[in-house]
Design brief:
The structure holds 2 protein chains of 2 kinds. Chain A has 13 helices and no strands. By secondary structure, chain A is mainly α. Chain A has 2 domains: 53 residues, no CATH class; 205 residues, MetI-like fold (Orthogonal Bundle), CATH 1.10.3720. In chain A, helix 3 packs across helix 7. By secondary structure, chain B is mainly alpha-helical. The chains are: A mainly alpha, B mainly alpha. At the A-B interface, helix 1, helix 3, helix 4, helix 5 and helix 9 of A face helix 1, helix 4, helix 5, helix 6 and helix 7 of B. Chain A: Keywords: Cell membrane, Membrane, Transmembrane, Transmembrane helix, Transport. Chain A: Belongs to the binding-protein-dependent transport system permease family.
């Protein structure tokens, strides 16, 4: 009997936490769907809009170019995924599987890079981008994080856990180092590649401080910077702000819903090893 | 060129070819900017002006800068209040979703939602909920409590931003704890419950000791993150840091001082260096405290 009550209690607490963690998002979605005539300040709050409308999504696009901001964010995020997958798997493979003088020093360089908080070098990065003539471009948004030190170390770990036998056979067959990397090792670390891809996409899509600092021309803004601007200028219209935030969070929720099983396994493995 | 020689050079060069993109990026965009930051912190550099060597003047200026002390206080408070919550609450949450009961996969994924969203998105949602006429004040009003100026008062703004940080991190640290709990042998719990230990006793004498190293890790990660706080406060209190700038954090001060056409790059670099030294010290301190308790 106590066991049943224990289980009931557990579900009650789970539902309470669900309301706290997901409730605010649903409330925002609801606000974004409420028409101009519907009072959004009523109490008790009405979660289901009486006359749901997509008008606010059109309205927010009339005020700020939210779709072109979304496209900027997508461009930056996809570029970040590609460069991180290529750069981190190449470097991780060399650190884990190749023997050469200076391997320890190279590993140390990545660890040191990890220890320097981005927040403490953003001003110097901005100065550097000015010197390179790249400030206020999407390239400047991508460059500093295009091969993350953490991703290199994650890939090194993944390659390090592969059994040596698979590659030995390939060496005997005369396969060169590039073939061993591309044909044999890379397909065996798909799980970690997926984790690197998801985190790179998320980190880039959600990033705020760096794009805020390096972008000054409003046509170049990413979605997060554009939303901050929207909030500053039109905070009085909560319906429009709500529509903007839903546009920013929806792609990630969809992506996560699709990859959820894969993702939790990968993250758990990563945190145990890492 | 003889074939054997060619083969050998190829083999010797290829590790560095593999490493080239990664090493180039961290050298140019992490390590070089760090060295620039150190150099600039001893100069009076400004945006577009290289500046001259001024020795320790930036650091001496800091001692007399009220904004610096306010920012240092706020960032330190952030660590002191956020970290205990971030170490404890996600652990309780992980225990809640650990058993393989029905729908648990759904709950785990749902609790992760705030981690997925950009801090900009969640800050805007919170701004709306904590508005004078928002949902939270509506509920408080129904309970008979007056409207609380969450977004109007300096201290309440800072506490609201802290609550946001804790809330957004719940799912992230929960996943780390879940991985650690998966390695705790079930027999320990069963033995303890046969001995008649209650839930609280079992938590303190079985769970906590077995995930202690993970608690230290979470403590270190969240201390560093909390000290570097920027976005939550910037978005909730505004770029100028709330009423009379009272909510400004150190990284906000760095951003405000060092950017723009009249940015004081030298002084901002000195502030950046303070951020770097304190985050590093915090991390070492937490890791060391964790190791110290391990000793018998």
């Amino acid at each position: 009997m106590t066991r049943v009550w224990g289980r009931v209690l557990r579900y009650v607490v789970l539902l309470a936490v669900l309301v706290i963690t997901v409730g605010p998002f649903l409330w925002q979605l609801s606000t974004s769907l409420k028409g101009r005539t519907e009072d959004i300040y009523t109490f008790p709050p009405r979660l289901l809009p009486r006359h749901p409308t997509l008008g606010n999504y059109k309205g927010v696009a009339d005020i700020v170019p939210v779709w072109s901001y979304a496209l900027n964010s997508l461009t930056v995020a996809v570029a970040n995924v590609v460069t991180n997958l290529v750069g981190a798997s190449l470097a991780g493979y060399a650190l884990a599987r190749l023997r050469f003088r200076g391997r320890g020093a190279a590993t140390l360089a990545f660890v040191l890079a990890l220890l320097v908080p981005l927040e403490s070098i953003v001003i110097a990065q901005l100065t550097l981008m000015r010197q390179l003539g790249l400030n206020n471009t999407l390239i400047a948004v991508v460059l500093p994080g295009c091969v993350g030190a953490m991703n290199v170390l994650l890939m090194r770990d993944a390659f390090g856990h592969l059994p040596y036998e698979t590659e030995e056979a390939a060496v005997i067959d005369g396969a060169g180092v590039w073939q061993r990397f591309a044909r044999i090792s890379l397909p065996s670390v798909k799980g970690t590649l997926a984790v690197v891809a998801v985190f790179s996409f998320m980190g880039s899509w959600d990033d705020f401080l760096w794009p805020l600092i390096v972008l000054s021309d409003s046509s170049k803004f990413t979605l997060t910077v554009g939303l901050n601007y929207l909030h500053g200028t039109f905070s009085s219209n909560q319906r429009l702000v709500a529509a903007g935030t839903v546009i920013a969070v929806a792609p990630l929720v969809v992506m996560f819903a699709c990859l959820q099983r894969y993702f939790f396994r990968g993250v758990a493995e990563g945190s145990v090893k890492g | 060129m003889r074939p054997s020689h060619q083969a050998r050079t190829h083999r010797a060069a290829s590790p560095w070819l593999f490493l080239l993109p990664g090493l180039a990026v961290i050298a140019v965009f992490d390590l070089y900017p760090f060295l620039t930051t150190v150099w600039h912190s001893f100069t009076d550099a400004r945006t577009l002006l290289p500046g001259h060597w001024v020795g320790l003047r930036n650091f001496q200026d800091m001692l007399h800068d009220d904004q610096f002390w306010t920012a240092l206080r706020n960032s330190t408070l952030y660590v002191a209040l956020v970290v205990p919550c971030t170490v404890l609450l996600p652990l309780l949450l992980a225990l809640l979703v650990q058993p393989r009961i029905r729908f648990v996969g759904f709950f785990r994924a749902a609790f992760y939602t705030p981690v997925l969203a950009s801090v900009v998105v969640v800050a805007l949602i919170w701004n709306w909920m904590l508005d004078d006429r928002g949902l939270v004040n509506g509920i408080l009003h129904a309970l008979g409590a007056g409207p609380v100026p969450f977004l109007g008062d300096g201290w309440l703004l800072l506490f609201s931003a802290m609550a946001l940080t804790v809330w957004k991190g719940l799912g992230y640290y929960m996943v780390i704890y879940l991985a650690a709990l998966a390695n705790v042998p079930r027999e320990l719990h069963e033995a303890a419950s046969v001995d008649g230990a209650g839930a609280v006793r079992r938590f303190l004498s079985v769970t906590v000791p077995s995930v202690r190293s993970t608690m230290v890790l979470v403590g270190a990660l969240s201390s560093v993150a909390a000290f570097k706080v920027f976005s939550e406060v910037f978005l909730m209190a505004g770029p100028t840091g709330g009423p009379a700038g009272a909510d400004t954090t150190l990284v906000m001060l760095v951003e405000r001082t060092g950017t723009g056409l009249s940015g004081r790059v030298g002084y901002a670099s000195a502030l950046s260096l303070v951020v770097f030294v304190i985050t590093l010290a915090l991390m070492l301190l937490v890791l060391r405290a964790g190791r110290g308790e391990d000793a018998p």
